[in-house]
Amino acid sequence: MAPAGCLIDGETMSRNASLTPLPGSCAACAVRPFALFRVVPQARVGEIAKVRSGVRLVRAAEAIHDSVFTLYAGWAFSWTATPDGRRQVLDFHLPGDLVERTEDGAEVEALTDASFCVLSRDRLCEFMGRDPGLAMSYAEGLTRDRARMRERLTSLGRRDAAGRVAHLLLELHGRLMRRGGADARGAAVPLKQAHLADALGLSVEHANRALAAMRKDGIATLNKGRLEILDREALEEMAGWSGPAQPGLLARPVAV
């Protein structure tokens, strides 16, 4: 259960709202092993803010100037929109992910009720100045994010609807598996068809048909917030998967 903290209710937060210090030591934090601040030796690094599903964190965080956020519990996603209002999901954020405010107008929204560890940028710079390992950890995170975005662009440009959905499901399952949030057969994945469609450049109908085909063929199901992988080999073939055969293993070579 997430610790008590400041509840951001709606799309704004009072400028004088107080955040709750993190309970206990950060060393005991469940997401610390795969979060940016795993290399920080301090007992406490930030404070906790809680948001409800559907709240746009970037707007809510206007009251918390120059801060960075580590997702402590729950799911979030970043998105942008075209001038005519069509949404493009840019990424899904899982516990341990660093979420930063950007200047390009992208929104960050809580997909479920979520909790964030809030740290000022000044303090982040202070930590980096004292510990080069933190700067390296930050750079490694950016590299992983860039690699994930390259694969997402490949999906948008070269994979069919079924391949796009299959690849995203494998990506999310692998990320959760490495964090201890999944088993070999599946995981809690609270995505709706609209999230998949908006992340993959599909209509909701195309996303639904891809999921229905996977279910009919006994490959995978996504139902009521639960992903079940029934035939991983077939799912990887559908996705044109070049990542690890199982999360945590070395990537297989790409056929040329």
Radius of gyration: 19 Å
Rough shape?
globular
Assign the CATH superfamily of the largest domain: Jelly Rolls
List the quaternary state of the chains.
single chain
**CATH hierarchy class name of the largest domain:** Mainly Beta
Give the number of helices: 7
Outline the low-pLDDT stretches. Answer: 1-19, 248-256
Main pleated sheet: 6 strands, mixed
Mean pLDDT: 81
Total individual domains: 2
What does this structure look like?
A hairpin with a 2-residue loop joins strand 12 and strand 13 (226-229). The chain is an alpha+beta fold. The chain has helices at 57-60, 121-130, 132-158, 161-178, 193-200, 204-216, 232-239, and strands at 6-8, 20-21, 47-51, 67-73, 76-81, 87-93, 98-100, 107-110, 114-120, 182-183, 186-188, 220-223, 226-229. The radius of gyration is 19 Å and the shape is globular. It contains seven helices and 13 strands. Residues 1-19 and 248-256 have low confidence and may be disordered. Strands 1, 2, 3, 4, 7 and 9 form a six-stranded mixed β-sheet that branches. Strands 10-11-13-12 form a four-stranded antiparallel β-sheet. Helices cover 34% and strands 22% of the residues. The chain folds into two domains: 6-138, Sandwich (Jelly Rolls), CATH 2.60.120.10; 160-239, Arc Repressor Mutant, subunit A (Orthogonal Bundle), CATH 1.10.10.10. Keywords: DNA-binding, Kinase, Transcription, Transcription regulation, Transferase. GO terms for molecular function: DNA binding; kinase activity. This is cAMP-binding domain of CRP or a regulatory subunit of cAMP-dependent protein kinases.
